Automatic annotation (TrEMBL):
PROSITE patterns documented for this protein: GST_CTER, GST_NTER
Top EC class of this enzyme: transferase
Organism: Edaphosphingomonas laterariae
Keyword tags: Transferase
Any one annotated GO CC term: cytoplasm
GO molecular function: glutathione binding; glutathione transferase activity
Coiled-coil region list: none
Protein name, per record: glutathione transferase
Gene3D superfamilies: 1.20.1050.10, Glutaredoxin
InterPro entries for this protein: Glutathione-S-Trfase_C-like (IPR010987), Glutathione-S-Trfase_C_sf (IPR036282), Glutathione_S-Trfase (IPR040079), Glutathione_S-Trfase_N (IPR004045), GST_C (IPR004046), Thioredoxin-like_sf (IPR036249)
């Protein structure tokens, strides 16, 4: 099975983390923004990452890909079967992929993607506004909803957690840390999930890229 994209994308990293937690071996084939690689384009007609191929089956979109992985290997169950739990897990996946990623994108795109990868000046004012005014209410929201178990649904690891922690990797890459005094549950939650081997390996590789390149995202 092949995943096309870059692990610095929270959507690609979500698929890689999900596959690892399922015990499914996948190969990551790196792709840049709007890559014209024929294999990638065959799996992702609109050029969006991640794309995925399993033999003669190809599809794109992270949520569609993880649904496929869940179906071909039901255990361990990362998308709950019980109707209410399943709905909650899918809802959290959507919240992470839209609300949290939209905030993260303003910071990561302007501080990393534009200056480091595209060699263009980013809008640092937009990034700063997102960090100061948009991110704190989102973390407040999450702080109030993390159960004592430390997992968002069914007191165990599910797609909800795998999706939610992805944008926080990118927040950390641009220096947006979590105030453990103001948000102790979120700080503990993110640290615990990020320490899992399924995602820790990708965080380490991404940090290694910035260190090797000598690039520190602008703030």
């Amino acid at each position: 099975m092949i995943v096309y994209g870059s692990s610095m994308s929270p959507f690609v990293r979500k698929v890689l983390t999900f596959a690892a937690e399922k015990g499914i071996e996948v190969e990551l084939k790196p792709q840049g923004l709007q890559s014209d690689d024929p294999e990638f384009r065959a799996a992702s007609p609109f050029g969006l990452m991640p794309a995925f191929r399993d033999g003669d089956f190809a599809i794109s979109d992270s949520s569609a890909i993880v649904a496929y992985l869940e179906a071909i290997k039901p255990e361990p169950a990362l998308i709950p079967a019980a109707p209410r739990s399943r709905a909650q897990a899918i809802w959290w996946d959507e919240v992470a992929d839209t609300v949290f990623v939209n905030c993260m994108r303003k910071m990561f795109f302007n501080r990393v993607v534009l200056p480091i990868f595209l060699k263009r000046e980013g809008d640092l004012a937009e990034a700063a506004h997102a960090e100061v005014h948009e991110l704190p209410p989102l973390i407040d929201f999450l702080e109030a909803r993390i159960p004592d178990s430390g997992f968002l649904v069914d007191d165990r690891l599910t797609l909800a957690d795998i999706a939610m922690v992805q944008p926080f990797v990118n927040f950390l890459h641009v220096g947006a840390s979590i105030d453990a005094e103001r948000h102790p549950k979120v700080a503990d939650y993110i640290a615990k999930i990020h320490a899992r081997p399924s995602i820790a390996q990708w965080i380490a590789k991404e940090r290694g890229f910035f260190e090797k390149a000598g690039n520190v995202p602008n703030r």
